[in-house]
User: Fold this.
Amino acid sequence: MRKILKPDFFNHPTLIVAQNLLGKFLVRKIGNKEIASMITEVEAYDGFNDKASHASRGRTLRNEVMFGEAGRWYVYLIYGMYWMLNIVTGPKDYPAAILIRGVADAKSPGKLTKYFQINKSLNGKIASKTTGLWIEDRGVKVEAKNILKTKRIGVYYAGPYWSRRRYRFLIEIPQ
DNA sequence: ACGATGATGAAC
DNA sequence: TTCATCATCGTA
Assistant:
């Protein structure tokens, strides 16, 4: 089974979509080569009030994709070196996105973008075959009891309430 | 524990 | 125009 996820998949509450993404496959096409790896770790950034989210300080040039329609990529540079890959969720004008933090073959957000050759050029593009980066359902079922929930990484600046929310979701993968 | 490294946004 | 900050990572 190979089903490409359409924008509608992402137009739902961010915390739900985040968990639904575990076990799905991130797929990249470069030239005639296709690479794919299962998503194993994500983080939700949800709404105007989330102090850990770029959107908490309002709409800017960088974060405006987060305010757009679900199913688009939000890609930005962090620490001058690493591209972060997010997928926009929820309705238009509601800022939310899911950071893809890990796949089976690349276990951290900066490493996976390097592995998939992802940079600013994908920012704002729709996750689809035509843009060369998309997500597929390949029939892997993830049980709710197998999803680990922890606080998000690297967001202490967001204060005790928002930094402690368990918006990070991951699954264990057999080696 | 820390430095690399540069875009971003807010202050001036 | 300047400046602190930052959804990280590899080396120590």
Residues 43, 45, 52-54, 76, 78-82, 84, 86, 99, 101, 108-111, 152-155, 157-158 of chain A lie near DNA strand C (CB under 10 Å from a C1'). The longest helix of chain A spans residues 14-21.
